[in-house]
Amino acid sequence: MCSAKCNRLGLAFGYVFTLMALIGNVYALHVEDTVEQMAALAYAGSALGVVFAGDFITLFVFWELITLSAVALLFARRTESSFGAGLRYFFVHLFGGLCLLIGIAITVAQTGSVALDRMELAGIGQILVLTGIGLSCGFPLLHAWIPDAYPQGTVTGTVFLSVFTTKTAVYLLARLFPGTEALIWIGAVMAVFPIFYAVIENDLRRVLSYSLINQVGFMVVGIGVGTAMSVNGAVAHAMCHMIYQGLLFLALGGVIYQTGRTNATDLGGLYRTMPLTCAFCIVGAASISGFPLFSGFVSKSLTMSAVASEQMAVVWFALLFAAAGVFHHAGIKIPFFAFFSHDSGLRPAEPPRHMLVAMAMAAFACVFIGVVPGVLYGILPYAVDYQPYTLAHVLEQTELLIFSALAFTLLILSGLYPSELRSVNIDADWLYRKGLKGAMVSLLNGVAEAGRLLDALFHREIPSLLAKPFARKALRLTDRPVGTTIFWINVLFFCYLLTLYLW
Amino acid sequence: MGKKYYFDKPENVRKVLRGLYVVAAFLVVIDFFVPKHPSFPWEGYPAFYGVYGFVACVFLVLAAKHLLRRAVKRDERYYDE
User: Fold this and answer.
1) Record: contact A399-B72, CB cut-off 8 A
2) Which of A157, A296, A367, A468 could covalently link to A287 via disulfide, CB atoms 3.0 to 4.6 Å apart?
3) How far is A191 from chain B (nearest CA, A)?
4) Nearby residues of A82 by Cβ (< 8 Å), 6 or more positions away
5) In whole angstroms, what is the distance from residue A249 CA to residue A211 CA?
6) Going by C-beta distance under 8 Å and a sequence separation of 6 or more, which residues neighbour residue A61?
7) Tens-level pLDDT at each residue, chain A (503 residues)
């Protein structure tokens, strides 16, 4: 089907990008805002441009187009907070894009080639490229734009946002840096820290954003390990992740569309009147958690097995902890606080049929991949020699999940579970939203003040000082005292003489 | 709101909890009989995944509640001008 020159890695991503663009557009059939429609399509198209690019220049053009269209998508919501989020997204990704561009320039200058080949972290060029890609991936400390921006999109826009930027970055990481050891540790940190935030967040789309970083962490670890199996695992995980994370955003979006609310404090008890949306949400939750018969089970286990066969115990424990954690906040918390939990008193109807159809498509894909993993495995870049449905594996995963569910239930019933609170939790974006802001304001004020001082000095104080002897019977032809003119003519003459002597 | 739904009745909630216990116990029992091919020695311990999942979740929730939330929680309007 595909010639030897075919980019199997990019093709795998390309298939799911296209599928999610279709699902997202079915979901957004009701949207009449041309800005949002165009932004979403441009966004998906740019992502396809990146994964099928064969050289750095093309790559970079589409990379920046991704940023521009994503910002337009955020602006499309037309609220003050989404405008702020869009601006922050723009500047953060401008910085990332600059890192990438400078890194590309240095690398191309060094190697003389614009081909997209694997690189070693040998110099500043490669490090900058990694930083630029990592920012779009959600590397720790460069990640805060994800929980900042994604909840600010429209109901339909965020579905697109959740899919394309981060997975494009994962593709590029897999293409350029497979086997880079630093990625293993970066990915492990990425997989672990967001789940703590997810437990205490109120806005459910923010919870999903943190779980997105957690999942991408798995992929980064897989790329870092670098064996055929682990890169396969990372790609498989990325493909499944796009669908089930998209499904979760689709279901939550349906809830927001019908109730106008997105916070766990304001929702609950919706299973009564939105059973279909609830069911689809649970399918997505089961997939992200890795329940047998769902897509997460056949993809996540590839990465875990690869890490295990490399005997990396610490990373393996971290990823297992992250797996239990993601089940906790995405598998349980999201459906529980949206559809069950306390009765919010809301009895909304199911969202419009096209939105349910989109959810059904994604849910079908999740179950299909879980039940017939061979189809997914056939698309992966390397040959797969892995059997996910062994008795031991099914038992282990189910045990992990059931006991985690038990822990959640007991924590809720005993009252130990942290209550949902209206609050803002500060993350790394505090730095440019509050921390540096004060410093910047002081700096700018200082510069303005210095400007005023210099202006007063050269336009009033010094000229008036020197003009005093000449100003008594001054012919006032202009507003400016003659003294000022004489002063500056003197300065000019002096500079002229100086230049003549020195040259 | 006269119509009663499934979880409005407390005995259904108890049923779910008891169901979880039953499934958990069942899994632990068959854990002893399933042939495993552990990559690490501890994978072979009985109910390792169950215990790890339970402990991890409890640790996660309590750490998030008592450590992270205390450190990062601010008012809802913290970032507003």
Assistant:
1) no
2) A296
3) 13
4) A74, A75, A152, A153
5) 12
6) A49
7) 454 456 889 999 999 999 999 999 999 999 999 999 999 999 999 999 999 998 999 999 999 999 999 999 999 998 988 999 999 999 999 999 999 999 999 999 988 888 888 888 888 999 999 999 999 999 999 999 999 999 999 999 999 999 999 999 999 999 999 999 999 999 999 999 999 999 999 899 999 999 999 999 999 999 999 898 899 999 999 999 999 999 999 999 999 999 998 898 889 889 889 999 999 999 999 999 999 999 999 988 888 888 888 888 899 999 999 999 999 888 999 999 899 888 888 889 999 999 999 999 999 999 999 999 999 998 898 888 888 888 888 988 999 999 999 999 889 888 888 888 888 888 888 888 888 778 888 888 999 999 888 888 888 888 788 777 766 655 555 666 677 778 889 999 999 999 999 88
Give which of A53, A99, A93, A51 is closest to A69, Cα–Cα.
A93
- Chain B residue at shortest CA distance from A423: B76
Establish, for the pair of chains A and B, how many residue pairs have beta carbons separated by less than 8 Å: 153
Looking at the DSSP bridge assignments, the partners of residue B74 are A424
Q: Which of A364, A355, A363 is nearest to A282 (CA)?
A: A363
Residue of chain B minimizing CA distance to A313: B40
Widest Cα–Cα separation across chain B: 62
Query: Is the CB of A200 less than 8 angstroms away from the CB of B73?
Result: yes
Task: Extract the tokens encoding A422.
Answer: 């209206």
Q: Which residues pair with A55 in a beta bridge?
A: A115
What ipTM does this complex have?
Answer: 0.88
Claim: this prediction has a pTM higher than 0.95: no
Evaluate whether A137 touches A169 at the Cβ level (below 8 Å).
yes
Q: Which residue of A has its CA nearest to B35?
A: A392
The whole-angstrom separation of Cα A8 and Cα A453 is 63
> Residue ranges of the alpha helices (H) in A76-144?
80-111, 124-137
